[in-house]
Amino acid sequence: MSNFKVPESVILKAREVFSPAGQRVKVCEELAELIQAISKFTIHPCSDNKRKIIEEMADVRNMMDQLQHDLGIHDDEIDIVREEKIRRLEQLHLRLAGPKQVSDFNLFCQAVMDGTITG
């Protein structure tokens, strides 16, 4: 992932115009649009639908930068949690599949459902 961030001046202007609460609502809207784009691509994979995912991912990242700034969350805090979650995913991979690739998404979902793994 790139280190590109929304400039602070843009974040402060958006906050002034739309309010912090308004920006948090916008985060939810952008996440919903990304979910829709992913669903559409899953049903009909094509370059146009892939492009829509890229656009929505950019919108979500921009809004996440604003939310992160608004809540005073530092990159290091997020990186620590991401590393923990990656370690958990690696452990799950080893528990479920050993050295082979996990290709059965249903197995993963079942592990979430039965509590083998947690958020």
How does the SSE layout of this entry go?
Blueprint: H1 8-18, H2 20-43, H3 47-71, H4 75-97, H5 105-113
Explained architecture:
This protein has helices at 8-18, 20-43, 47-71, 75-97, 105-113. It is mainly alpha-helical and 119 residues long. It folds into 2 domains: 1-73; 74-119, no CATH class. The two termini are 22 Å apart. The model has no long low-confidence stretch (mean pLDDT 87).
Count of beta strands: 0
Protein structure class: mainly alpha
Overall geometry comes to: globular
The number of distinct helices, counting runs of at least 4 residues, comes to 5
Distance between the termini: 22 Å
Overall residue-averaged pLDDT value: 87
The largest β sheet comes out as: none
Q: How much helical structure, as a percent, in the residues?
A: over 70%
Report the β-strand fraction as a percent range. Answer: under 5%
| Elements, N to C (H/E) | HHHHH
Query: How many domain modules?
Result: 2
- Low-pLDDT windows of residues: none
Q: Rounded to an integer, what's the Rg over CA atoms?
A: 18 Å
What's this, in brief?
The chain has 119 residues and is an all-alpha fold.
Key structural traits:
single chain; 119 residues; 2 domains; 5 helices
